[in-house]
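Sync notes, pocket subgroup
Present: LS, DG
LS reminded everyone that the earlier model was apo-only. Rerun requested with zinc ion included. Inputs:
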Amino acid sequence: MASLSPRSVAVTDQILAVLREAAEPLATLEIERRAGYRPYGSPAYQMLRRLERMGQVERLKVPDMQSRYWRLAGGPGFVPPPARAHALRAGPPWRTTPDVTLCGYGTAGRRVVPLAEFDAMLAEPPPWTAVCPLCVSCRGGEMASWARDPVAVIHADAHAQPDSGARGALAAEFRALACLAAEYPERFRDLLEAEQVLQALGG
Ligand SMILES: [Zn+2]
């Protein structure tokens, strides 16, 4: 860098130091901020271009991002954001599998957290970038629970996405329940009458 003035050498050293410490590519503005320069009009951009021509840094074209991003030659790529968390929905009590997310999808390949953890994430101020927005809108208000509203639980399953397998599971379960009722008609009638009494009493 014999052709660079002492000030330019100082700037490039600073820029290279910032990029060396960065875990992922940085926007020009962020490099200026970390190097302690005032944004715009700083020599950082010119120096970055010069370093680029010298093969020491790389400029990254990022679609949908207005700023230019930079890294050391062969440096780190962008760190992908963590997968958004889904919450599990309540299922009928006899169900052991499959689990279904609040937004109606199967859990395979998705990050699913217990409802309490999901609610704790929503207790943080928005924006909630770490949670599934569909699950958030489904979460609004009270969760349908079997004890409070079995019809709502079944209704949600009936409208789940095909990949969840919930609707198929429900069909098999209903057929099995119908067989069970046919096999033990007196027991079924007793249980049903007991429920009807409870309903009449407002239970
Ligand atoms: Zn979701």
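DG: The mean pLDDT is 87.
LS: Helices lie at 6-21, 28-35, 44-53, 115-122, 133-139, 150-158, 166-183, 185-200.
Action: DG to write up.
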